[in-house]
Amino acid sequence: MKKEEIKELGTKELLERLAVAQKEYVQLKINHSISPLDNPAKITQDRRMIARMKTELRRRELNEQK
């Protein structure tokens, strides 16, 4: 998902996708600790995507306060 796609999502849908992404990220880390992943860079990609989603939510929160 790209930044533009994140901005187009509604807040409720973004929160739902964030929750799903966080669950997948935790499961990915657990699986990686048990046996190495084929692509360990996926962990970094997922973490950054979660950060992008949180950043967009925070930006919206700050815009509502003005």
What does this protein structure show overall?
One of its GO terms (biological process) is translation. GO terms for molecular function: structural constituent of ribosome. This protein is an all-alpha fold and 66 residues long. The chain has three helices and no strands. The chain has helices at 3-8, 11-34, 41-65. Helix 2 (11-34) packs antiparallel against helix 3 (41-65). The model has no long low-confidence stretch (mean pLDDT 94).
**Mean pLDDT rating:** 94
The largest β sheet comes out as: none
Order of helices and strands: HHH
Number of strands: 0
Cα radius of gyration in angstroms: 14 Å
Computed structural class: mainly alpha
Report the principal-axis shape.
Answer: elongated
Percent of residues in helices comes to: over 70%
Q: Strand percentage, roughly?
A: under 5%
* Poorly predicted ranges: none
* Helix count from the secondary structure assignment: 3
Give the terminus-to-terminus CA distance.
28 Å
Briefly summarize what is shown:
Helices cover 83% and strands 0% of the residues.
Any descriptors?
single chain, 66 residues, mainly alpha, 83% helix, Ribosomal_uL29, Ribosomal_uL29_sf, ribosomal protein
Could you outline the blueprint of secondary structure elements for this entry?
Blueprint: H1 3-8, H2 11-34, H3 41-65
Helix pairs in contact: 2-3
InterPro entries: Ribosomal_uL29, Ribosomal_uL29_sf
Family: Belongs to the universal ribosomal protein uL29 family.
Protein name: Large ribosomal subunit protein uL29
